[in-house]
Amino acid sequence: MLKHIEETVDYLKNKGFKTPEIGIILGTGLGQLINEIDIIKEVSYNHIPNFPTATVEFHKGKLIYGILAGKKVVVMQGRFHVYEGYTLQDVTYPVRIMEKLGIKTLLVSNAAGAINLNFKKGELMVIEDHINLQGSSPLAFKGVEHLGERFTDMSAPYDSEINSTFKNIAKANHIILHKGVYASVVGPQLETRAEYRMLKIIGADAVGMSTVPEIIVANHLNLKVAAVSVLTDECDPENLKPVDISEIIAMATKAEPQMITLFKELIKTM
Fold first, then answer.
1. Per the CATH hierarchy, to which homologous superfamily does domain 2-269 belong?
2. Cα 28 from Cα 108, distance rounded (Å)
């Protein structure tokens, strides 16, 4: 992996990706942030050596470098998932690349279902902790110790200072921002009634199919990390209706301007 990382980083540096300070991963239906960036360079994933390629139709598949709120950022417009057939090492490879390019902070967004029924679709949740239900770890491979501490501490995976700033920004901008625990499952199927009940019992406030692998690797690399879920549906096992993925995407798009406000205003303070 070290050789692959070196090849990828050299390619991107030669393309003009110079010393970004902040990395951003945009989740399902969350691509409008790109419109706020003064883009300097962008490269399709399928042109980047050793990079996975997004296979989900609503994930664009571009790595973008530019200026946002006065800071150099590198943005993943479209992420990778285990349910696409990738390994957890594939899914998190871009985090390792962004760190080698120079980022010190990683901001992550996702679309998630609300397990906590006090939360409503269209609202946001800042992730304070998570539950990894993806069946393995992105650090479970031979040679991981050459990239960072094998036994990575996860007692506080999300930066409390950033989360506190998010809360202040939300209050100032009249944005409903919950705090909670995110459970990451494999997917791509949605959950059964029994699975929603289980998730509630074990302490999840929201559920999705991403984010946790990237957060684990970011902690492995000693990056500051924060993540925000856009709640796109309400997962009430007693009143469960069939889920329409197009409705989830539409809800994510509708709520996204609030997430953009959080990210932009946060970056101004960094």
1. Nucleoside phosphorylase domain (3.40.50.1580)
2. 11
